[in-house]
């Protein structure tokens, strides 16, 4: 395989993995506080259409990302009211949020289906971008790619090095103990959930503003669900989310590998498109085989409603 | 300020009232949505909820649309009662549609009642096989059935897309991604002359009856109910968790597969890459709004079918995208889950201590 092909595959892998990193890290923080939000697909869809519409009208992609972030945060706020204040079932409410978000985005997005955004140029980091093979793939990228790395570093620091991160994890492990020593469990869960929604919104806007600068109904096509699976696969550890997201990114651009391999094989495109979903199932099987791995790493109160009595 | 106060015991009345509250909130939300879009809300309400069923043909279309919803929802409800979260009915419906279409195309231009019977069996088995994957992986490897069944929805959509672009494509169809039109021998008989309502509606009503008997009159149904309320109690009593996972997922898959069969052998009359109109996902909402109860599923399916028809009308008369149906569906479920708080809590006005 030629270096230029390798480089372009690497480039595509990084870009395909980026929204997964952003969304999955946001979900990871929410899940660490004990809240399981299965609505990532819907929040991403809303982030995508909000980002697309605002970018189209304002001409500024960063306003679009901001709008996507707000749309995702608003959706997760709705979810938080239902599951945290009204103590609704988290699984069912997350599903509802997905259905609502996908439906609402299709509804809002109808008039935008024939529009195309100008593509946004890459942000080149001097010197590093001149490295062979990896230079272009890693250091001549969309700004949100660098954002995803900063997010990763920030979350690692927050969760494992800061006091607030410790409190957040305590809330996820044992909300009643955290409550009894005076931490506002519900408020902390609200903030973590909304952060997760904001990240899902940014991830969605990345798809419609930078990745394929157009809006198509259903364009998130399961990435929200894959991000949720990724958090399980990563056993709630940020570094594994990063690695896992790039693995999935690689699977998503599988057709590039086939084209680059110079092999004379004719695989229907649908089979290649099914790979990320099949890969998700395979990694879930691998990680769930040993029940203890999941049980030891999952936040203990994940998905459980909590209401401080008096 | 308003405060929530725990009730001494769950309110039976509220568990029935909360779906109605959710419907009322959805209607209010709809009126607000119509006004926000600059449409006359009363006119919008009429177009959405009254026009579709203003004549006999409209009613027949309502029953036709409710059929796949009833089938999927009753199958899902069996599993949901035991906390088996099959949310991939959409994919299982497609798998059933594919299997039934394979039979129809294999017997193309042949005659006889055996064709339809085989299609029904193939449809149900197709859906069950698709649902057997998450069931097997859950039992053998403890994988999460929500994520696996959902991933298989995307795989089923891609599979049917490949089939109608390849092996199942109509050889005389100018490369359109669709199969041949099925022979009359592979189409479900019409129940109501002059409409499209077919025998599948009979399947759906029978499924609701069987579901009712299973849930409330069989020991297995009782076991699943216990497992849903108290997992540990069910395990202590020695109820097999594996068997419940199998029953829960296979009933959902089988019914969804039958729904897929009734679509390709009913209103579609062929297979295309749009076998389902999100029925598998809408059925989840139906099952919840119905409180997982077969009688409730009957009425909730009619309501959900009305939302589908209303969306089509809104597209035609109000120039709104038909995906407005999904907005209503999502709102309904969100409101329901929110109002369910009233089952265990009551709202009290409390003076804030000075």
Describe the protein in words.
The complex is a heterodimer of chains A (310) and B (354). In chain A, 72% of the residues lie in helices and 1% in strands. Chain A is an all-alpha fold and 310 residues long. Chain A has a single domain, classed as ABC transporter involved in vitamin B12 uptake, BtuC, CATH 1.10.3470. A two-stranded antiparallel sheet of chain A has the order 1-2. The longest helix of chain A is centred in the N-terminal third of the chain and has 30 residues, at 3-32. The termini of chain A are far apart. The model of chain A has no long low-confidence stretch (mean pLDDT 90). With 354 residues, chain B is mainly alpha-helical. Chain B has a single domain (2-349), classed as ABC transporter involved in vitamin B12 uptake, BtuC. In chain B, 69% of the residues lie in helices and 3% in strands. Chain B has helices at residues 12-36, 41-50, 56-81, 89-106, 114-141, 145-165, 200-217, 219-229, 231-236, 241-268, 279-289, 294-317, 324-339, 341-344; strands at residues 2-6, 345-349. Chain B has a two-stranded antiparallel ribbon with strand order 1-2. At the A-B interface, helix 3, helix 4, helix 10 and helix 13 of A face helix 5, helix 6, helix 11 and helix 13 of B.
């Amino acid at each position: 395989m030629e270096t230029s092909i390798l480089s372009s595959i690497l480039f595509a892998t990084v870009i395909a993995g980026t929204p997964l990193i952003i969304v999955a890290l946001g979900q990871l923080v929410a899940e660490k506080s004990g809240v399981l939000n299965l609505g990532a697909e819907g929040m991403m869809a809303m982030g995508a259409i909000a980002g697309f519409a605002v970018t189209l009208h304002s001409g500024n992609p960063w306003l679009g990302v901001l709008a996507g972030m707000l749309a995702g945060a608003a959706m997760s706020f709705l979810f938080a009211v239902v599951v945290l204040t009204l103590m609704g079932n988290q699984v069912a409410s997350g599903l509802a949020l997905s259905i609502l978000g996908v439906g609402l985005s299709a509804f809002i997005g109808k008039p935008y289906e024939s529009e195309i955004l100008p593509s946004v140029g890459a942000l080149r980091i001097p010197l590093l971008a001149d490295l062979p093979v990896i230079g272009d793939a890693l250091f001549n990228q969309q700004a949100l790619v660098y954002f995803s790395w900063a997010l990763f570093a920030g979350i690692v620091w927050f969760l494992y090095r800061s006091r607030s991160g410790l409190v957040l994890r305590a809330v996820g492990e044992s909300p009643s103990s955290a409550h009894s020593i005076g931490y506002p469990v519900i408020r902390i869960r609200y903030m973590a959930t909304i952060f997760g929604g904001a990240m899902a919104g940014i991830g969605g806007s990345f798809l419609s503003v930078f990745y394929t600068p157009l809006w198509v109904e259903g364009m998130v096509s399961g990435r929200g669900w894959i991000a949720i699976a990724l958090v399980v696969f990563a056993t709630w550890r940020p570094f594994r989310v990063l690695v896992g997201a790039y693995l999935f990114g690689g699977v998503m651009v599988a057709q590039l590998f086939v084209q680059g391999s110079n092999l004379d094989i004719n695989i229907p495109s649908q089979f290649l498109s099914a790979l990320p979903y099949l890969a998700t199932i395979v990694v879930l099987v691998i990680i769930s085989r040993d029940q203890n791995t999941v049980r030891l790493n999952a936040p203990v109160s994940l998905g459980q409603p909590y209401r401080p009595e008096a | 300020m308003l405060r929530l106060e725990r009730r001494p015991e769950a309110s039976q009345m509220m568990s029935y009232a909360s779906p109605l509250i959710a419907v009322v909130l959805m209607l209010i939300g709809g009126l607000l949505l119509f006004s926000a879009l600059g449409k006359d809300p009363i006119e919008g309400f009429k177009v959405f909820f009254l026009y579709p069923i203003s004549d006999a043909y409209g009613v027949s279309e309502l029953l036709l649309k409710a059929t796949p919803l009833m089938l999927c929802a009753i199958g899902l409800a069996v599993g949901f009662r035991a906390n088996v979260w099959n949310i991939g009915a959409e994919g299982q419906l497609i798998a059933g549609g594919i299997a039934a279409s394979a039979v129809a195309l294999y017997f193309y231009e042949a005659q006889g009642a055996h064709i339809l019977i085989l299609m029904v069996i193939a449809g149900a088995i197709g859906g069950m096989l698709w649902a057997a994957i998450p069931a097997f992986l859950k039992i053998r490897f403890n994988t999460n059935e929500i994520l696996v069944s959902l991933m298989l929805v995307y795989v089923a959509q891609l599979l049917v897309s490949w089939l109608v672009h390849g092996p199942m494509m109509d050889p005389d169809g100018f490369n359109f991604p669709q199969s041949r039109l099925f022979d009359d021998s592979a189409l479900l008989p019409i129940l109501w002359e002059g409409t499209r309502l077919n025998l599948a509606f009979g399947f759906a009503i029978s499924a609701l009856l069987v579901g009712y008997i299973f849930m409330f009159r069989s020991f297995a149904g009782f076991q699943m109910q216990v497992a849903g309320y108290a997992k540990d109690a069910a395990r202590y009593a020695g109820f097999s968790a594996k068997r419940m996972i199998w029953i829960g997922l296979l009933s959902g898959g089988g019914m969804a597969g039958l729904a897929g069969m009734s679509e390709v052998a009913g209103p579609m009359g062929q297979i295309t890459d749009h076998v389902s109109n999100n029925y598998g996902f809408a059925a989840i909402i139906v099952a919840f709004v119905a409180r997982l109860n077969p009688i409730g599923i009957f009425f909730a399916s009619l309501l959900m079918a009305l939302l589908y028809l209303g969306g089509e009308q809104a597209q035609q008369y109000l120039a709104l995208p038909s995906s407005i149906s999904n907005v209503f569906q999502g709102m309904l479920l969100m409101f329901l889950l929110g109002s369910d708080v009233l089952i265990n809590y009551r709202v009290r006005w409390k003076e804030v201590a000075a």
